[in-house]
Amino acid sequence: MDSEQFKAAARDMVDYVAGYLDTIESRRVVPDLQPGYIKELIPDHAPEDAEPWSAVLGDLDRVIMPGITHWHNPRFHAFYPTANSYPAILGDMLSDAIGCIGFTWVSATLGTTDCCSFDDLLSIGPVAQKHELYMHIDAAYAGAAFICPEYRHLLNGVEFADSFNFNPHKWMLVTFDCSALWLKNSSEIVDAFNVDPIYLKHDQQGLVPDYRHWQIPLGRRFRSLKLWFVLRLYGAKQIRAHLRKQIALAERFAQHVKSDARFDIPVKNHMGLVCFRLKEEPNETTEKLLNLVNGNGKIFVVPAKLRGSYVIRFCVCARTTEEKHIDDAWNEISSLAAKAIEMCKK
C-alpha cells in the first residue's frame, strides 16, 4: 500500500468510523453469537497474495462487527467507561505513524538485541527438560523471519519451549504495540492472573480463551485487528519480500564495511543487523566515531559491547529504506572515520 492508496483507504475508514459511531445506538449492545463463530468465516491461514482493500473493508461488517460488544453505545452501562473521542482517534493515527516506542525492558533468545545471535535450542531444551525448568523463547525481532523457509532451521528445538513470543510491531509491518505470545499450557498464566469477581462472570466462560486472565491489566486493546489487516493487505508473499529486502540491504552495508580495511565486523551479521568497529583501534575510537555520526544528525546508530569490544550496531529499520539510504549512511560513516581516528590520537 503506497501513500495514494493509503489516503484513499483512510478516507474510506474515516467514513466507516464516523458512520459506525453515528449509528451505534441502533446496534445491539452485546452480540448474540456463540463463541468461535469467526472460525467459520475466515480461512485457517494467512493469504499468500495481497487482497484488495475493498475485500477487507467489506469483511468488517461480515466478520468483525457481528461479534463486537459496543462499549460506546449509549445503552452500555457495564463496568466503567472506555474513553473514545474523535480527537483521540486522530491522535492515535499520528502516534501509529510516528511509531516511537517508550522503552521498558530466563529465556532462550532467537535474535539477541546486541548482535542478533541465536541460542542453540537443541542444546538448551534438553537441559531445561531434564531439570524441569520452564523454557521461554524470546524471538521479539527475528521471529518474523520464520515465515521465510530459509530461516526456519533456526527454530530447531522449538518443541522444548513452554512459551514463545515475537513482536509483529518490530519487523512485520504492524504498528506498535503488537506482541504475539504462544503458551504450551495457558493454565499456568491464567492461574497466576485470574481475576473473576461476579460482575465479570458470563455464561460463555471456559468455551474460549478469556484473555483478561493472561495479564495484569483487566482490559486490552483490539491489537489483532491491525495484524489481520496487514496479513490480508500484504499477503504472506509480500511480507516475506519485505523481510528479504531488508536482509539484503543489511548485507549491502556489510559489504561496504568489508571493503574498507579500517573496519572490522567482529560477529557474523544476521537478519537486518550489522555490528562493526574500527579495526585495531581502542574502544574509545569507535565510540568517538559513533558520537561524530550521531552528532551530525544525518543518521542515528547505537552501540553495543561484544566480548569487551565496543561496536556500532547498524540495523535496517524503516519500511522505506532503499539502497541509496544504505549507501548514504556508509558514506557518512566512512567519511568521519579518519576524523575519529585523528581525534583519538591527539
Automatic annotation (TrEMBL):
The modification N6-(pyridoxal phosphate)lysine is found at residue 170. It is an enzyme of class 4 (lyase). Its EC number is 4.1.1.28. Signal peptide: none annotated. InterPro entries: Aromatic_deC, PyrdxlP-dep_de-COase, PyrdxlP-dep_Trfase, PyrdxlP-dep_Trfase_major, PyrdxlP-dep_Trfase_small, Pyridoxal-P_BS. GO terms for biological process: amino acid metabolic process; carboxylic acid metabolic process; catecholamine biosynthetic process; serotonin biosynthetic process. One of its GO terms (cellular component) is cytoplasm. Keywords: Catecholamine biosynthesis, Decarboxylase, Lyase, Pyridoxal phosphate. GO terms for molecular function: aromatic-L-amino-acid decarboxylase activity; pyridoxal phosphate binding. Pfam families: Pyridoxal_deC. Its cofactor is pyridoxal 5'-phosphate. PANTHER family: AROMATIC-L-AMINO-ACID DECARBOXYLASE (PTHR11999:SF167), GROUP II PYRIDOXAL-5-PHOSPHATE DECARBOXYLASE (PTHR11999). Belongs to the group II decarboxylase family. Homodimer. This is Aromatic-L-amino-acid decarboxylase. It comes from Notodromas monacha.
